[in-house]
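Need tokens for this chain, all 309 residues.
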Amino acid sequence: RGRLDPAIVRLNDLVVATLELLPRALGGSIVVLSRLAPELWQTKADASEVENAILNLAINARDAMPANGTLTIETANSTTFDRANDSQLANLSGDFVRLSVIDNGQGMGPDVLSRVFEPFFTTKETGRGTGLGLSTLYGFAQQSGGHVTIQSAIGKGTTVNLYLPRYDEMARPAGQVNQGPAGDKTEGTILVVEDNLEVQTLAIERLRGLGYQVVSASCGRDAIEIIRSGRQIDLLFSDIVMPGELSGFDLAEWAAKQNKPIRVLLTTGYTDQLQARAGEAGSGYPILRKPYSREELAQEIHRALRQSV
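Here are the structure tokens for all 309 residues:
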């Protein structure tokens, strides 16, 4: 369970906006298609979490199609009658909107399929997956009054269906994330240090959408070179675990010792216990836990930029 900011969502609009991010995240070997239902019902949900779901599922699909493949994103209205023959949805009554992410990749057998929602369960090699993506999606769906199902078979691909409740009352549309307390401006240059290209791309897009200037590096050494170049950096936003000899803590300590210290915000996907110990080792640097929403990113960046150095 997480902190949500539900608002009226026009799911088709959100899918179209997210599709713009996918080519860079997926690479050129994946064909992306969309089938969006006309006159799709509205739903009430946290738009940033829906966006996270699409991106995470798309990346999972890419990993299941190592050579090439087709990814399809589909939306539809879903009634109790439509779902009558699906045993996974036996207790789901009423009207919902359905978001489906479909791939024609390797697929999963029954032994794996039965465990996909377990926290920290992953079939990916070390360093390529935390095992939290699908469990987080399941928690988000349940917390939003919906459900998620998966159909998959070896050699036949995978379909993930996210069901969110229909909402048909007049209310405010899901707009931009609050960028900070009223009257505050989102301005400054942020150095994003992240070795995972998909995570880096998403962070950059979100920060630019919030109004910040952004530069990026994939490791601590590259970040140091950028800082040494004399470019104005107002905040260092770095992952903790990175390739090379420098961790995010090492980079933060180096930045703090410069003639002009730089504000720091760290991020990690570690468990709470590991994160707590890391926080002690890092002399109290603020840490944003992955996966984070757009709202959480906006708040923590704003808070970090107001720190004294």
